[in-house]
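Session log. Operator J.P. requested a structure for one protein chain; no other inputs attached. Running the standard single-chain path with token output.
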Amino acid sequence: MTRSIFGRIASVLCITFLALFIEPASAQARFNGAKAYDYANAFDFSKAPSTARAAMHQFAVPDSSRQYLATHPSKNIDEDDPT
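Structure written below.
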């Protein structure tokens, strides 16, 4: 069976709070958590973690992409954003 409800970042945060027994830091987080998709029954936390892993690969950025990015800088740069 597939679900027709899309998960949101609030849903991911909500399951994280529940799994780690963390209280939401603000009233806004609690409000968003109330609207979040309930992932609580989507995981069996009593089972050992799966050993299956996705292979990670690195690829060089093509010169054409580097040139494009150099000539089209982002207009939404936040110098204080650490990401």
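Operator note: The chain is about 35% helix and 0% strand.
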